[in-house]
Write a structure and sequence with these properties.
The protein is mainly β. The protein is built from one helix and five strands; from the N terminus they run E-E-H-E-E-E.
Length: 80
């Protein structure tokens, strides 16, 4: 198992119980877990995910998570 931190932003926050303020929620996941696998495990609908950042850098869904990674997940946003 590896330990990571995840933050879900805006409308995605409801998929973490309880929603985590501040630095995110610490989770343990099996080695070899991808971003895609993590989000599926959390029940996050992938069509609601627009941007994934790992350690402040854009990451693909196939990215394999590593010990101490910090994951941020953003839905599509609109403004005007």
């Amino acid at each position: 198992m590896i330990r990571i931190s995840i933050r879900l932003f805006a409308t995605l926050q409801r998929y973490l119980r309880p929603p985590a303020p501040g630095e995110g929620t610490a989770l343990e996941v099996p080695e070899g877990t991808t971003v895609d696998g993590l989000l599926r495990t959390l029940g996050v609908p992938l069509e609601q995910v627009k941007i994934v950042m790992v350690n402040g850098i854009h990451a693909e869904m196939e990215y394999v998570l590593r010990e101490a990674d910090r994951v941020g997940v953003f839905p599509p946003v609109a403004g005007g």
